[in-house]
Amino acid sequence: MISINPESLSERENYKFLTGSIIPRPIALITTQSETGIINAAPFSFFNIVSSNPPMLSVSVQRKKGVQKDTARNAIKSGEFIVHITDEDIVEDVNQTAAELRPEESELTLTKFTTVASDKVAVPGLKEAKVRFECKLERAIPLAGSVDDPGCDLLIGRVVCYHIDQGIYHEGRIDQNGLKPVARLAGQTYTKLGELFELQRP
Ligand SMILES: Cc1cc2nc3c(=O)[nH]c(=O)nc-3n(C[C@H](O)[C@H](O)[C@H](O)COP(=O)(O)O)c2cc1C
After folding, report:
1. Is residue 49, in this structure, part of any structural domain at all?
2. Tens digit of pLDDT for each residue in 21-74?
3. Tally of domains in the chain
4. What pTM did the predictor assign?
5. What distance in Å separates the CA atoms of residue 105 and residue 115, rounded to the nearest whole number?
6. Which of 199, 176, 202, 186 has its CA nearest to residue 88?
């Protein structure tokens, strides 16, 4: 085994070990709304479930030289955001939303996504995603790169409404083959659902 002290590595070197090992990662496409009403969209693969009781999820938004990305800034200001699950049918457009636009520009103009009003929050969702979660911000935790230059904003969202495409909803479950999720590997590599198998729990 090769043993490496992360403190001897640059941020990029740490990033490569983490994103090359923790795979595949689901991709949240997140919409937020700015104070002036611009709908921001961006993908995040540092994303997972925190708890099912209450239903909560986490998204880690890296800062750039200490500056918050639009998603973190909007979510913290407004206290809400929408998470959409990336699937094979929307992955190309999801990728387009990673464009680095100014806060007053919406990434949605680069895509075919259409917005749909939410039930419990002001920020709209995107109709084309087969699953979306309306979330209220439970907690935003700045995690420090150094004391006055935090490295990321860890957003914890409480799901306040699920929206699930009728075609993949079966008796309280999501049809994984119908959802066709896409996950991120390292760099520009993505994966679809691979070979499935079952294990009986001991
Ligand atoms: C598939 C994919 C996954 C990404 N995951 C993350 C992530 O987990 N955290 C992060 O900070 N940036 C991530 N990015 C980069 C952001 O999407 C990118 O910085 C985006 O411009 C941020 O947009 P915003 O400033 O509108 O929030 C990812 C990009 C792609 C294409």
Report:
1. yes
2. 999 999 999 999 999 999 999 999 999 999 999 999 999 999 988 899 999 999
3. 1
4. 0.97
5. 16
6. 176
Q: Please give the single-letter amino acid code of residue 122.
A: A
- 199: in domain: no
- Residue 155, in any domain of the structure: yes
Q: Tens of pLDDT along 65-107? A: 889 999 999 999 999 999 999 999 999 999 999 999 998 999 9
CATH code at 110? 2.30.110.10
* 81 within domain boundaries: yes
Domain containing 101 equals: 6-191
8 Å CB contact between 83 and 177: no
Cα separation, 103 vs 77, in Å, equals 14
Q: What residue's CA is closest to ligand 1, atom 1?
A: 43
The atom of ligand 1 lying closest to the CA of 190 is 1
Q: Which residues pair with 191 in a beta bridge?
A: 183
Evaluate: CB of 44 within 6 angstroms of ligand 1: yes
Q: For ligand 1, is residue 118 a contact (CB within 6 Å)?
A: no
